[in-house]
Amino acid sequence: MRVLQSGFCWPSLFKDAHTMCKSCDRCQRLGKLSRRNMMPLNPILIVDLFYVWGIDFMGLFPMSFGYSYILVGIDYVSKWVEAVPCKHNDHRVVLKFLKENIFSRFGVPKAIISDEGTHFCNKPFETLLAKYGVKHKVATPYHPQTNGQVELANNEIKNILMKVVNTNRKDCLWQKCHLPVKLEYKAWWSIKKLNMDLSKAGLKRFLDHSEMEELRNDAYINSKIVKEKLKRWHDQLISRKNFQNGQRVLLYDSKLHIFPGKLKSRWIGPFTIHQVHSNRVVELLNSNNIGSFKVNDHCLKPFVESFSRDKEEFILLDPHQA
């Protein structure tokens, strides 16, 4: 403003003023993530039942008979939910849950989706999955929507538990209450007529399986059509981002949603991009350039370097002598 008010002028005056304002470090660290900063939608389409499971811990809850957590698993096709109360949230509980509640009852899946918690990302867990040939897909902490199916199941369980506990939310008997999956999801198949011939019962069961397979195929086709329409509608509202290796970016501090603070900057950095991976995953170098970590690019924005303040000398002619 002082330059403009002083009457100075040069050909790139307005362009330089725009660049200087855009490169303000403090201004770049303000603002929130909007819908236009979201990632392109990548729907997960699974063909067969019990091929992909999402698992997650719920808690910490008020202790009930020594139990403080709930371990939840959900199948991505049938939306079948398995949930067990747990006293601890360590890897031993996860291994026992997979062996007793998933592998032995529904077969070995093709993939398991979880977050980056230490109870899921550890050597015994990876050894078990490698033994059975299961692929482990990890959701980054900046993008929990990757495991969104289990997050929806968590909300359903929380809402139902809130109905069975006292109004003060300190009911210590929630563990003795039947988990919602036992009341809402599990419906065991049974023969209505007990005096039916065994051979006819077997044929009836075979026909039910054949009909169920057709219904699953129809459901898969309908799900694919709906998700393609949703992706087209979602992606037309977002802005495209193209990051390059070596580029400097700012990272949105998602912890402010949990621990809000007055006058705190929402963006941290700048960080240097080490490598750009597929599915909008970006690997950033730490501030000391030692080690790296991965984030989704929806929480990144380019960092504009500060306006050059190098002084250059110009020889001005005296207008009376010109």
UniProtKB/TrEMBL annotation:
Stored PROSITE patterns: INTEGRASE
Location of the Integrase catalytic domain: 39-219
Pfam families: rve (PF00665)
Molecular function terms from GO: nucleic acid binding
Transmembrane segments: 44-70
UniProt KW keywords: Membrane, Transmembrane, Transmembrane helix
GO biological process, one term: DNA integration
Annotated InterPro entries: Gypsy_RT_Integrase-like, Integrase_cat-core, RNaseH-like_sf, RNaseH_sf
PANTHER family assigned to the protein according to its UniProt record, in alphabetical order: ENDONUCLEASE-RELATED
Protein name: Pol polyprotein
This protein's encoding gene: pol_832
